[in-house]
Design brief:
This protein is an all-alpha fold. 80% of the residues lie in helices and 0% in strands.
Length: 41
């Protein structure tokens, strides 16, 4: 049972990590669009 809880918490932390990176990427992407650097070389 404790193993199941461990796996569950691991999934939650990885999901939070994904959301964190997604937010960072999105904000950086929006900044790029605002600065007019949408097209990257």
């Amino acid at each position: 049972m404790s193993h199941l809880c461990h796996v569950e918490s691991e999934e939650n932390s990885s999901e939070k990590l994904f959301i964190l990176f997604y937010n960072i990427f999105t904000s950086a992407f929006l900044k790029r669009i605002k600065n007019g650097n949408f097209i990257t070389s």
